[in-house]
Amino acid sequence: MTKRERWTRRSARLLAFATVALVLYLWQHISKNTALYLSTPSAIGRAVGNWFSNPVLRDDIPITIEEAALGFCACMLVAVVFASILAGSKLLTAITAPYIAMWNAVPKIALAPLFILVFGISIHAKVIFIATATFIIPFFSLLRAFTSVDEVILDHAKVLGANRRALVRDVYLPAIVGSMAAILRLTAQFCLLGAVFSEIIASASGIGHEIAIAQTAQVANYLFAGVFIVAVMGFTLDRVIRRIERHFLTWRVGT
Description:
- By secondary structure, the protein is mainly α.
- The chain has a single domain (43-252), classed as MetI-like (MetI-like fold).
- 85% of the residues lie in helices and 0% in strands.
- The protein has helices at 3-28, 32-38, 41-53, 55-58, 60-87, 90-105, 108-119, 123-134, 136-147, 151-159, 164-201, 207-217, 220-248.
- Helix 5 packs parallel to helix 9 (136-147) and helix 5 (60-87) runs antiparallel to helix 11 (164-201).
């Protein structure tokens, strides 16, 4: 990295920090009437601290994480299965394409109450909602990766004696690595948001449940505290997946 690049990066970070500091300062000194609806950074900070010191609130965090994690696993499993099935049949892909397009256009938020009505408010209901609402994101990426494998490469592999297992291991898996690395971060974020949203709609626990209670009671500092915690969780999740991506895709450096 050159001296100019280091200076540019430091300047960008300093500018970002100064912008955040200015926004927090102005927010802290808003009028008392406005603070009733927007709270203040200091009040939100105390609410965040209380969220971790209060056992009842603290226990809601792992519940949301568990729902998002299970939903993410179910989402990826459904996406892989459907993409694998459709990639092996052009006729089946042509038949199901209109239905997939319609499902992609359906507002999943509008269906959340229906899922809760049918499956209840248990963790299984939330996992089903998350997987159903978000599987379309990795599905399209996986299907494109599967169907974009060069037929010449497949023919060469078959001539060399590759069976179905070898084709999956040596041809299809390398083909989807790049697509999966790019889509995992987005899918994980949507699964987390899906978990929180389903808790807001109807739940007896979780971060979204506490946000819904704060919204009903018009306690702005706890509402913003819940949103802040979700944002931090999402940012941390993104950093973790990005680090894993860098670890397993070091061969792409410089390409």
